[in-house]
Design goal:
This protein has about 1150 residues and is α/β, with parallel strands linked by helices. It contains 46 helices and 26 strands. Among the domains are: about 20-210 and about 245-270, Metal-dependent hydrolases (TIM Barrel, Alpha-Beta Barrel); about 295-420, no CATH class; about 430-545, Bacterial DNA polymerase III alpha subunit, thumb domain (Arc Repressor Mutant, subunit A); about 795-940, DNA polymerase, domain 1, CATH 1.10.150; about 950-1055, OB fold (Dihydrolipoamide Acetyltransferase, E2P); about 1065-1139, no CATH class. The strands form six sheets. Strands 1, 2, 3, 4, 5, 6 and 7 form a seven-stranded mixed beta sheet that branches. Strand 11 (about 525-530) and strand 12 form a beta hairpin.
Length: about 1150
């Protein structure tokens, strides 16, 4: 038996303070032969259940606790500026389940009632929730130690007696710590004396914040990250001595050997703490059913068959049998209430015109869900399997992920909260961690390494979900070279390795909601975000499932908002339009797909997919479903076979004749997980439930398991009359598809959604694009992109107009009208006010009429400037400079007129200038030059709308610029490029040697880039490079300083530039899984189209870091538009570009 137990320990859930991951802490305790271990994170229980489970798995008794922040008076008093006036520390440990429940309540209330700088409790709460708890006085920041340090030992003793009275004789301890701090010596002497006088027992602890002594420096860096300090700064928060680690029993005896009782008491506490947390199965909330039904099962059956009759009319035997089977499984697995709860809030959404997605994930395979309108995909029509969603042979919670209109999602959450009670519904916490690249940047800032250096080092780390710094060091030799090159870099990488993966901050899960059978604090502590006020669970999603809480995902999908807005715009034209009643075989829609016109089409808009669509010529929704499932790494290998079979270029082959009904719709190609299951059923004799288990097991490809599965499959197939060889052939055929075959239910649901968006684009293009623009009204880049797309579709996009523009983008006479909210600095309230006054009094007749009718407190001077410079009055006045110049006079005129009318003094305005109105008031001023008008336009809209400063040089720009400034990461750094653009933001600075150099922004049609003009260049070109000048520059892209920049070697006037063709053709593949046959076809195509461009292949490696391979010098190709279009048709290719 150990002679000591660590009772005061902080994991990395003590955010940016503790540097001890729970797994490492428990493992170290086990190495040190410790029978018990506590977790006492600062003010939270974020890691409590994870710690409990980890201790149990390693044979250690878990002691759940928390280092609470105590309010000096009531938790409701939130005043005081000095730290001592805000809170002090106190350790509470759970002896049993009652104590654990009380910890949950205390921790929750500290956030919901007591938060002031920190989550706080008070003495009132301690008295109420003391049962089952052991209390320790805490570190030197505890109340009793502070009183001692203030010289008030008598008050400290009195407070100790007070706590003993609350917790009882055996449940309150004076806590002794010694980490080498002078104030700890003073505190300990007094605590020993108080113990002698009062007989209150003592307990020795070490305030653990990291695992081993050598982690001290890394933890100190973590503190600096959290406090935004540099390590070299003086007078910053630091723990000082390197003693806050998980010490061995011998080390603790060396510290407290003279106080053996303080050591033994820790063991007594450990033995008293015997916590068994009840982790039940799913605890579904009770759903209240109407009185006329005997139970939830009967009510669900009633709703199901009512919905089926609405869906199908007369019910066939197939529909009835399928519904009966699903209901039997749902009831037997105890999920009746779950279906009713989901049905209820989706029914609420539909009744309140909140669009709901057709389905997501495997849930679309349920006929009951289709009947209840939880989903909107007919599983019988599309061959979707219920067992893929809910398998009676594999116990797991059903999981409906529900898409709602982005704008209506919150209303549904509010409905659920109101229905089940605010105490039973909550959002879910998530934790951001110090990831490999981010931790390098964080640590570099603390070590005072310049950002550019830190960023370039961070970018050496390959990206990918499975990449960490340790693996990056093995993969990227330059990182190891840096460690050897410089001690600072060595510290950077070593510290980053120690801190990587630690929790950095808490936030709220984007979609997850939990609904409890009882109030949530029956299961979990709650957390309140101090910035947003959102209440969420303190346990993560994985731990909530352990507690039996049911998680539901309420996702906001912009595509549903897009469809809703487009439908409203169509109905404004008097058309009785319902997106749910469109034909499924619209010729125009499928022609758009076949021509690859899928920009803005949900799930089908990537350039690679557009190439696939052109080749596949889909002509039914089933084709879209298959292409959606195939266009992913892995399944993509089968796109050629799918297309060639569909187009009749190769015969359709089936492994067995009896598999034709399963594979016919995908032209003999296995595409879906459901097909794997059906084949296992037909050939191997599995039930669909068993086939789902087989599919999942096969996907893991564990050798021992695979041998067992193969044996079972062959045995089953032989029983059905297949030969062993044929059975083995079919099994081997299924293996790859079990791994990367796609979930058909998900592909079907999202392909139906894609078809709806394509139907809108093909048949109502103006309304469709206006809805897209509204969807992206806060994204300047997307607005610019979609306006360009609209114009390429032949649509007219009108500029903002004071009498035509609505709040959002609208359609008038087939033309898209710019929305007022899309104007920067105007704001939603101002836009709404303008429209309301226009609706009340009719169109505005002049600028003065506008001023007289609006509230100038809402439409203030800044807003008026925006209104003028964005051209809202161009149709009425067409003199922006004059309106701007006269603005103050006009405001003064209208303000005085309004005041006079208010007090009945109209006679003051009976003569002269004031009576004759606007023309006299507005002094003529020369209109701004075009470049100035465009500058304001970009300032207000975020992009150039009516023209571009380069329009006079557009033909030259096309001939000499071959790189896209919005996609700079994809270009090479060693090559010289030529750019043409307009100069913005010029800034001259001296170098370290005092020589002048310059930084400027060069802007063209696609984007902008920062120019670096070193002294030797700047001296020669400073006359050419001025703000708003159009120049050509030659130089190289520099990616070593964070964002790509352009090192200028030469500057010329536009007319001096000589046209030149592109010198490079770049081809980026989607995956590194490159098949020989299409590669040979691509190679042959490139050789057949010889030209002057060198070819570069961009291939993602297994670490998701791109490898660039230059083709052999002999492979130079032409790079005209037709050739690029042909290359894009290869399904393996993601992107093609010239440079």
């Amino acid at each position: 038996m150990s002679n000591f137990v660590h009772l005061h320990n902080h994991s990395d859930y003590s955010l940016l303070d503790g540097a001890a991951p729970i797994e490492a802490m428990v493992s170290r305790a086990r190495e040190l032969n410790m029978a018990h271990l506590a977790l006492t994170d600062h003010g939270n229980m974020f890691g409590a259940l994870k710690f409990y489970k980890e201790c149990k798995s390693q044979g250690i008794n878990p002691i759940i606790g928390c280092e609470f922040y105590m309010a000096p008076e009531s938790r409701f008093i939130k005043t005081g500026t000095e730290k001592g006036n805000k809170y002090h520390h106190l350790i509470l440990l759970a002896k049993n389940y009652t104590g654990y429940r009380n910890l949950i309540d205390l921790c929750t209330l500290s956030y919901t009632e007591g938060f002031y700088y920190k989550p706080r409790i008070d003495e009132e709460l301690l008295k109420k929730y003391s049962e089952g708890l052991i209390c320790l006085t805490g570190c030197v920041a505890g109340e009793i130690p502070r009183l001692i340090l203030e010289g008030n030992t008598e008050a400290a003793k009195k407070k100790a007696l007070f706590y003993r009275e609350i917790f009882g004789d055996k449940n309150f301890y004076l806590e002794l710590q010694y980490h080498g701090l002078d104030e700890e010596k003073l505190v300990n002497r007094s605590l020993v004396e108080i113990s002698r006088q009062t007989q209150i027992p003592m307990a020795a602890t070490n305030d653990i914040h990291y695992i081993k002594r050598e982690d001290a420096s890394a933890q100190d860096t973590l503190i600096c990250i959290g406090t935004n300090k540099k390590k070299k700064e003086l007078n910053r928060l630091s723990f000082g001595p390197e003693e806050f680690y998980l010490k061995s029993i011998d080390e603790m005896e060396n510290l407290f050997g003279e106080l053996p009782e303080a050591m033994k008491n820790t063991v007594r506490i450990g033995e008293m703490c015997d916590l068994d947390i009840d982790l039940p199965g799913p605890q579904l909330p009770d759903y209240t059913i109407p009185r006329e039904f005997s139970d939830a099962g009967e009510y669900l059956r009633h709703l199901t068959f009512m919905g089926l009759r609405e869906r199908y009319g007369e019910l066939t035997r197939e529909v009835k049998d399928r519904a009966d089977y699903e209901l039997k499984v749902i009831t037997s697995m105890g999920y009746t209430g779950y279906f009713l709860i989901v049905w209820d809030f989706i029914d609420y959404a539909r009744r309140n015109d909140i669009p709901v997605g057709p389905g997501r994930g495997s849930g679309a395979g349920s006929l009951v869900a289709y009947a209840l309108k939880i989903t909107d995909i007919d599983p019988i029509k599309y061959g979707l399997l219920f067992e893929r969603f809910l398998n009676p042979d594999r116990i797991s919670m059903p999981d409906f992920d529900i898409d709602f209109c982005y704008e209506g999602r919150q209303k549904v959450i509010e409905y659920v909260t109101e229905k089940y009670g605010v105490h039973r519904v909550g959002q879910i916490i998530t934790f951001g961690t110090l990831k490999s690249r981010a931790v390098i940047r964080d640590v570099a800032r603390v070590l005072d390494i310049p950002y550019a250096e830190a960023d370039s080092i961070a970018k050496l780390v390959p990206q990918g979900p499975k990449i960490n710094l340790k693996s990056a060091l093995a993969m990227e030799p330059r990182l190891e070279e840096l460690r050897l090159k410089d001690e600072v870099y060595n510290e950077l990488i070593d510290t980053s390795l120690r801190l990587e993966g630690l929790n950095r901050h808490a936030s709220t899960h984007a979609a997850g909601i939990v609904i409890g059978k009882e109030k949530l604090t029956r299961y979990v502590p709650l957390y309140k975000d101090s910035k947003t006020g959102v209440i969420s669970t303190q346990y993560t999603m994985e731990m909530l499932e352990e507690c039996g809480l049911v998680k539901m995902d309420f996702l906001g999908l912009k595509t549903l908002t897009l469809i809703k807005n487009a439908q409203q715009l169509i109905r404004k034209r008097g058309i009785d339009f319902d997106i749910d009643r469109i034909p499924e075989d619209d010729e125009k829609t499928f022609r758009f797909f076949g021509e690859g016109k899928s920009t803005c089409i949900f799930q089908f808009e990537s350039p690679g997919m557009q190439g696939v669509l052109k080749r596949a010529k889909p002509n039914k929704i089933e084709d879209l479903i298959a292409l959606n499932a195939l266009y992913r790494p892995g399944p993509m290998d089968n796109i050629d076979q799918f297309i060639d079979a569909k187009m009749g270029k190769i015969p359709i082959k089936y492994p067995l004749p009896e598999l034709e009904p399963i594979l016919k719709e995908t032209y003999g190609v296995i595409v879906y997980q459901e097909q794997v299951m059906e084949i296992a059923r037909i050939v191997g004799g599995y039930t669909l439930s068993q086939a789902d288990i087989l599919r999942k097991a096969m996907s893991k490809k564990k050798p021992e398991e695979m041998a067992k599965l193969k044996k079972e499959f062959i045995a089953g197939a032989c029983k059905k009359g297949y030969t062993k060889d044929k059975a083995e052939e079919i099994f081997n055929l299924l293996i790859p598809f079990a791994g990367y075959g796609f979930n058909k239910s998900h592909a079907a649901a999202y392909s139906v959604l894609a078809y709806k968006t394509a139907y809108l684009k093909a048949n109502y293009p103006a309304e469709f694009m206006a809805a897209n623009l509204t969807n992206e009204i806060n994204s300047t880049d997307k607005l610019s992109e979609y306006i360009t797309e609209s114009r390429e579709m032949g649509l007219t996009v009108l500029p903002p107009d004071i009498n035509l523009s609505d709040k959002f983008f609208t359609v008038v006479d087939g033309k898209i009208v710019y929305g007022l909210v899309g104007i920067k600095n105007l704001g939603s309230n101002a836009a709404q006010h303008i429209i309301e006054r226009r609706n009340q009094g009719g169109p505005y007749t002049s600028f003065v009429d506008f001023l007289e009718r609006v509230d100038l407190k809402i439409i203030n001077r800044k807003v008026l400037e925006t209104i003028i410079t964005s051209g809202l009055f161009d149709k009425l006045e067409n003199k922006r400079a004059a309106l701007f110049h006269n603005l103050d006079r006009l405001i003064d005129h209208v303000t005085r007129k309004k005041e006079s009318e208010k007090y009945g003094q109209a006679s003051l305005f009976d003569s002269g200038e004031m009576e004759s109105g606007q023309e006299i008031l507005i002094e003529p001023v020369e209109e701004w030059p075009q470049v100035e008008l465009l500058r304001y336009e970009k300032e207000n809209l975020g992009f150039y709308f009516s023209g571009h400063p380069l329009d006079n040089y557009k033909e030259i720009w096309k001939k000499i610029t071959h790189i896209d400034l919005s996609k700079l990461d994809r270009y090479l750094t060693e090559r010289t490029y030529t750019l043409l653009g307009i100069i913005k933001n010029l800034n001259e600075k001296p170098t370290r040697k005092g020589k002048p150099m310059a930084f400027a922004t060069l802007e063209d049609y696609n984007g902008s880039i920062e120019l670096i003009l070193f002294p030797n260049v700047w001296e020669e070109v400073r006359e050419l490079v001025t703000v708003d000048s159009v120049v050509g520059v030659a130089g190289k892209i520099d990616k070593s300083r964070g964002e790509p920049k352009f090192r200028v070697d030469e500057v010329k006037k536009p007319e001096e530039l000589k046209p030149n063709g592109p010198a490079e053709l770049h081809i980026r593949f989607i995956s590194d899984l490159l098949r020989e046959e299409p590669l040979q076809q691509l190679k042959a195509f490139l050789i057949d189209h010889h030209g002057y461009c060198h070819v570069y292949f961009h291939i993602p490696n297994s670490a998701e870091k791109e490898i660039i391979i230059k083709a052999s010098p002999g492979m130079t190709v032409s790079a005209n538009d037709n050739i690029i279009e042909e290359i894009r048709r290869y399904p393996e290719i993601q992107e093609v570009w010239r440079a």
